[in-house]
């Protein structure tokens, strides 16, 4: 899942990004509203975590612009003001969810994952292909009852491939959704991650390489 954190308090933004990264998400950070709109225009985010009180371009305007431009990303609005009127106003701007500061990190993670599931065609929380099961809520994978010890990137790639339901997923798409903007677009990270994932999944092989197209389950 690709997430954009828009928060002008840099230390908080970096802390949240690091925490979400440990949860297996690919996270970018924008410190003002203009930077947020720029990143949203060039990256395909699943969820935007948007602080309401932003410099340069206010969070309300960012939210309004994302909704008006038809972005598929779901917006989770953050604010220090947690009154009912504030929540109603934020949702009225096009936000999909609202979380008042201070908040528990575990709740933030849960809300982001719930919104991420809503940003695509409805999928069950447990993705199944034969003996392979991927529990996206519990972040657990098994094959034939055997637990698979997957890294966050391996889990993300497997989730993307299973979500495609047999369709081919390009390496570029995997890189876009599974890695943050600091990643080198010419990196071999996707190829290496798929190779490691294949070994962990075992036999018979589940991931097929489609020449000049990508990968599929």
UniProtKB/TrEMBL annotation:
<dbReference type="InterPro" id="IPR036388">
    <property type="entry name" value="WH-like_DNA-bd_sf"/>
</dbReference>
<dbReference type="Pfam" id="PF00072">
    <property type="entry name" value="Response_reg"/>
</dbReference>
<dbReference type="InterPro" id="IPR011006">
    <property type="entry name" value="CheY-like_superfamily"/>
</dbReference>
<protein>
    <submittedName>
        <fullName>Response regulator transcription factor</fullName>
    </submittedName>
</protein>
<dbReference type="InterPro" id="IPR001789">
    <property type="entry name" value="Sig_transdc_resp-reg_receiver"/>
</dbReference>
<keyword id="KW-0597">Phosphoprotein</keyword>
<dbReference type="InterPro" id="IPR039420">
    <property type="entry name" value="WalR-like"/>
</dbReference>
<feature type="domain" description="Response regulatory">
    <location>
        <begin position="2"/>
        <end position="116"/>
    </location>
</feature>
<feature type="modified residue" description="4-aspartylphosphate">
    <location>
        <position position="51"/>
    </location>
</feature>
<keyword id="KW-0238">DNA-binding</keyword>
<dbReference type="InterPro" id="IPR001867">
    <property type="entry name" value="OmpR/PhoB-type_DNA-bd"/>
</dbReference>
<dbReference type="Pfam" id="PF00486">
    <property type="entry name" value="Trans_reg_C"/>
</dbReference>
<feature type="DNA-binding region" description="OmpR/PhoB-type">
    <location>
        <begin position="124"/>
        <end position="217"/>
    </location>
</feature>
<feature type="domain" description="OmpR/PhoB-type">
    <location>
        <begin position="124"/>
        <end position="217"/>
    </location>
</feature>
